[in-house]
Amino acid sequence: VPITTARKLVLLGESAVGKSSIVLQFVKKQFDEWRESTIGAAFLTQTVPVKSGNFIWDTAGQERYKSLAPMYYRSAHAAVVAFDITSSASFEKARSWIAELQRQADPGIVIVLAGNKLDLVSQRQVSTADAEQFAREEGLLYFEVSAKTAEGIEEMFQTVAEKMPIE
Ligand code: GTP
Ligand code: MG
Predict the structure, then answer these.
(1) Residue nearest to atom 28 of ligand 1 (CA)
(2) Which numbered atom of ligand 1 lies nearest the CA of 147?
(3) Which of 38, 70, 91, 147 has its CB 3.0 to 4.6 Å from that of 126, i.e. a possible disulfide?
(4) What molecular functions are annotated in GO for this chain (predicted)?
(5) Closest atom of ligand 1 relative to the 116 alpha carbon
(6) Ligand 1 pocket mutation, candidates 23, 34, 37, 45, criterion most atoms within 8 A of CB
(7) pLDDT in tens, 19-60
C-alpha cells in the first residue's frame, strides 16, 4: 500500500494511561506488568501495521512532547484518546486532548475515548456514566478496555477501523 493512502490511527493520552500496552495487547496479545512508560526517545514511539493500509501510531504522553502532537494528528484519520479509569487527572487530560482535536484536527477525524485499566475497577475514579455522558455530548465513541486482560480491545479497534474514512 503506498504511504500516501495509508490510514493512520493516532493514540493520544497522558503518560502511563496504557497506550503502548493497548497496542501491545492488540498486536501481540501480550501484557507486560512491569513495563516502564515510554520515556525519552521521541513523541512517535512506534508505528504498527494493523492490516494492510492501516497503521497505529503510538505516541509518548509526556508533557514535554505536547508541541509535536499536531504534526501527528493532523494527518490522522482516527484518534484514540486514552485515559486510566483509576485517575481523574488522566480523564481531565483526555478531555483537553479532545478539545484540541476538535479545534485543530481534520474535521472528518474519527475520535474515540478509551477508558483503560478496567481490571482495576475497584480503584475506579472515573465513573462509566460520567465518561459516557461526556462522550455523548461530544459525539464520540466510548470504550472501556483493559490492556491487561484484553477486554474490549479487539472490539474497540474493530469499530474504529470500520468508521475510518476510506479515501
Ligand atoms: P507513555 O508512553 O509514557 O505515554 O505511557 P503509556 O500510556 O504508553 O503507558 P504504558 O502502556 O507504558 O503503561 C504504563 C503502566 O501501566 C505499565 O506499568 C503497564 O503495565 C500499566 N498498564 C497499562 N495498561 C494496563 C491495564 O489495562 N491494566 C493494568 N492493571 N495496568 C496497565
Ligand atoms: Mg507508551
Answers:
(1) 117
(2) 27
(3) 91
(4) GTP binding; GTPase activity
(5) 27
(6) 37
(7) 999 999 998 899 988 776 665 556 677 777 766 667 888 888
Predicted pLDDT at 36:
66
Give the up-direction half-sphere exposure of residue 96: CA atoms within 13 A in the CB hemisphere: 12
Give the amino acid at 39: I
Cell numbers that stand for 126 in this block: 472515573
How many A from CA of 116 to the centre of ligand 1?
9
Pocket of ligand 1 (CB under 6 A): 13, 15-21, 32-33, 35, 37-38, 60-62, 116-117, 119-120, 146-148
* Joined grid coordinates for residue 108: 472528518
pLDDT at 61 over 70: yes
Neighbour order of strands in the sheet with 44-49: 44-49, 54-59, 7-12, 78-84, 110-116, 141-144
More confident residue, 152 or 27: 152
pTM of the model: 0.93
Tell me how far the alpha carbon of residue 152 lies from the centroid of ligand 2, in angstroms. Answer: 19
If you average pLDDT over residues 3-29, what whole number do you get? 87
How far CA 34 is from CA of 24, 59, 151, in Å, comes to: 13, 19, 19
